[in-house]
Structure formats: C-alpha cells, structure tokens
C-alpha cells in the first residue's frame, strides 16, 4: 500500500476515534429517575421515588397523607364510624291498586311527604358525592404539587429531564441527567 495512502488512513482512524470520544464525553454524566406511581397507588404509600436517592431522599410522600386517607377512606369503603349508629328503617309496599306506600321509622308517609323524603335523600346523596369529589380533587392537587416540587428541587440542583414515559397505572417515569 502506498505510504501516503497509509498515513492518510491512519489520520482518518485517529480523527474518527477523537470524534467518537468527544460524543461519548458529551453523553457522560449522572442519571437519575423519578418514579411517580400514579393516583391510585399513591393512596397507600409514597407517591414517588428517586432512584438513586436525591440528597439522601428516596421516597416522596405527602406531609399529611394519613389525614387525607382518613377523610377519603370512609367515603370509599364500607367502614363505619365508631359509636352508636341509628338505623332509619324505610319500607315500601305496593297495594293491590299499584300504589306505593312508604314507611319511614314505622310512620306511613303521605304522597307529598314521600316525595319530599325522596328529594331530601337525593339531595343528601348529591352532596355526599360532591364532598367526595372535592376531597379527591384536593388530594390530586397535593400530589401534583409534591411531584412538581420534587422535579423543581432536582432542576435547581442541575438535573434536567431528558425523557419521560407513562406507566399503565397512570404513573410516570422521569429520566433526568446531570452533566459533568
């Protein structure tokens, strides 16, 4: 092989190696992931986790998570409050003529009273549903704020979100990089 061609080939190989090394140096750095578990999983434990730990902190939790769970839990499960529970007996009977007669706590209600009773019950149910939705909305706001706070703390320390992926349960994974 011609010596000039051989020297030129060596220069090309060296230049290629230097360029590859430069690209590798740009990609080098530290990586960290922030896992947000999603709204359902967050009801029972931490809402997220840093991997590896960020400033000695691996779990991301809400400050008053137990308090939110106490407020939401009776609305989502069949757990009953402690103490005496008064039952309201409601009986509906149909007569031969097809008329429905409503009895509440053993008292027969007139048609007007029965209509009023049904309206009150519907209003109570609507109010309970709205209260539940408000509590859930407050909880979701707190979770969102806590995840944003964690991301902002990492960004202030020089971490940059380079990729984000969603999980099937509604969670997210943030891949973060901190350059050299």
Automatic annotation (TrEMBL):
Keywords, sorted A to Z: Signal
Signal peptide: 1-25
Name assigned to this protein: DUF4230 domain-containing protein
Species this protein is from: Hymenobacter gelipurpurascens
């Amino acid at each position: 092989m011609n010596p000039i061609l051989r020297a030129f080939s060596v220069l090309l190989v060296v230049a290629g190696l230097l360029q590859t090394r430069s690209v590798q140096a740009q990609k080098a750095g530290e990586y960290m992931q922030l896992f947000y578990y999603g709204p359902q999983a967050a009801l029972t434990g931490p809402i997220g986790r840093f991997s590896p730990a960020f400033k000695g902190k691996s779990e991301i939790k809400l400050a008053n998570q137990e308090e939110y769970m106490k407020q939401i839990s009776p609305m989502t499960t069949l757990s009953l409050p402690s103490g005496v529970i008064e039952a309201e007996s409601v009986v509906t009977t149909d007569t031969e003529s097809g008329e429905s007669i409503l009895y509440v706590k053993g008292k027969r209600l007139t048609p007007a009273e029965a209509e009023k009773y049904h309206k009150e019950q519907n209003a109570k149910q609507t109010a309970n549903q709205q209260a539940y939705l408000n509590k859930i909305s407050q909880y979701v706001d707190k979770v969102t704020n806590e995840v944003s706070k964690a991301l902002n703390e990492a960004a202030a320390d020089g971490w940059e979100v380079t990729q984000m992926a969603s999980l099937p349960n509604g969670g997210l994974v943030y891949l973060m990089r901190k350059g050299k």
